[in-house]
Amino acid sequence: MSPAIMCTFTSIVAISFLSHVYAQRAYYCTTPDFCDDGIQVDPRIETPTKPPASCPAGYLICLKPKCGVAAGNLQPDAKDGEATKGAFPWHAFLQNDAAKANTANGYAGGGVLVDQEFVLTAAHKITNITAVNVILGAHQTTKAELDKCQKFKVTSMYVHKNYNQSTLKDDIALLRLETNVNMGGNINLVCTPPADKDYQNTKTECLVTGYGQQEFTDYNAPTPFLKQVHLPIVDTKKDCEASYVKNLGPKASDLLDLKFELCAGGGDQLDACTQDGGSPLVCPDAATKTFSVVGLVLWGKKCGQPGYYGVYANVPAYVKWITCTKDCMLGKGDCSKCPAVQHPPK
C-alpha cells in the first residue's frame, strides 16, 4: 500500500506503514515546532483515515505531534506563583455552560489535554453539571481574554463506574470535544506516562497548575491568571497516610487509596487549593525535557498546611482505563469493560 501523503513546510519526508487494509492513520494540524522531525514508522491503528483537506494558516498536517512540550521548548520558571506564560499549553479551563455569564465566567475546575479531542479531569468536577465547555490556551481569566482562546463544546463525558462521591475513590473522568484541537502556540498535548509507572516513592519534583483559590478562605476562583507550584511526590503510605493518621486519627487511613492515589507537597504553601480539582500534576523527563501528567488534583486538608499532603489521582494506574474509555467513546470498544459510565446517563 502506498504511503499517505503529508504536507509540511520542510523537506522532511514522513512514511506511514499500515498493517493491513483496515488500518487507519491519525493526522493532526500543528505548528512546525510541535511536529516530530524525521521519518516516522508507526503502524498503530488510529483515526481519521484521511488527512484534513487543509489546516489554518501557519499550521501543517502532521502524523505525530510532540507531546509534553511548550512552543520554543519554553520551560517553567523556578519560582512559584503566577505560571510561566505559555509553559503549560495542555492546561484546560472547564466552564459550566449554564453559568458562563456569571462573574467567574462559569469556571468549574481544571483538566488536561491528553489527545486531540480528549480532556482528562476529576469526576467530582463534572458530575453536578450537564453542559461543559473546555477553554484552551488561557493564561488570564477575564472574559475578554477567555474570548480570545480556543473554546470547545464537550459532546460526551464518561466517569469511572466505581467513582464514589463520598470517598472520592476512582475520581476520574474523560471528556470528548466536539471538534479536534489545532495544536500550536499556546496549545499542545501533555504526554501520558507508561501504564502503572511508579512515581509514588521517587521524590520526583513536579508542578501543579490551576486557577483555584490562593488561600483556603479566599473564595476567589478563578484567580486572575494560571498559577504554578513546584511539589515533590512523596511516599503515599510512609509519608502521606502516616501524616493524615497522626493529625486526623486512625480513620484517616480509609481515605487514601494506596494504588490509585498519590501525594505531593507537604510544605508551607506548597499545595493546590479549593477549586483546583481536576488540574494536572505534571512531571518532567530529565532526558527529553517533556512533561507527563502524573496526577489530577483531588483533595487535601485546607491548603498549603505544613505536614498535610495534597492527594492526586495516580494517572499511571489509570492509563489502561483511559485507553479503554477513549476507545469506547469513539465507538471502538465496550465501556462496561473499562469500567466507565456516561454522564449524564442516557
Description:
- It is a single chain.
- With 346 residues, the protein is mainly beta.
- Among the domains are: 122 residues, Trypsin-like serine proteases (Thrombin, subunit H), CATH 2.40.10; 113 residues, Thrombin, subunit H, CATH 2.40.10.10.
- It is 8% helix and 26% strand.
- The protein has 3 helices and 16 strands.
- Strand 13 and strand 14 form a beta hairpin.
- The longest helix has 13 residues.
- The N terminus is likely disordered.
- One of its GO terms (biological process) is proteolysis.
- InterPro entries: Peptidase_S1_PA, Peptidase_S1_PA_chymotrypsin, Peptidase_S1A, Ser/Thr_Proteases_Immune/Dev, Trypsin_dom.
- It holds the Pfam family Trypsin.
- This is Peptidase S1 domain-containing protein.
Keywords:
Peptidase_S1_PA_chymotrypsin, 26% strand, mainly beta, Ser/Thr_Proteases_Immune/Dev, Thrombin, subunit H, 346 residues
Fraction of residues in H or I helices? under 10%
* Low-confidence segments: 1-25, 37-49
> Any idea what the shape is?
globular
Let me know the CATH homologous superfamily of the domain at 82-190 and 319-331: Trypsin-like serine proteases
Could you give the count of β-strands? 16
Radius of gyration: 20 Å
CATH topology of the domain at 82-190 and 319-331: Thrombin, subunit H
String of helices and strands: EEEEEEEHEEEEHEEEEHE
CATH class of the domain at 82-190 and 319-331: Mainly Beta
CATH architecture of the domain at 82-190 and 319-331: Beta Barrel
| Tally of DSSP helical segments | 3
Strand order of the largest sheet: 10-11-12-15-14-13
Main sheet record: 6 strands, antiparallel, barrel
Q: Provide the β-strand percentage band.
A: 25-35%
Mean pLDDT: 85
* Global structural class: mainly beta
Termini separation comes to 41 Å
GO molecular function, one term: serine-type endopeptidase activity
GO biological process, one term: proteolysis
Signal peptide: 1-23
Organism: Acanthoscelides obtectus (Bean weevil)
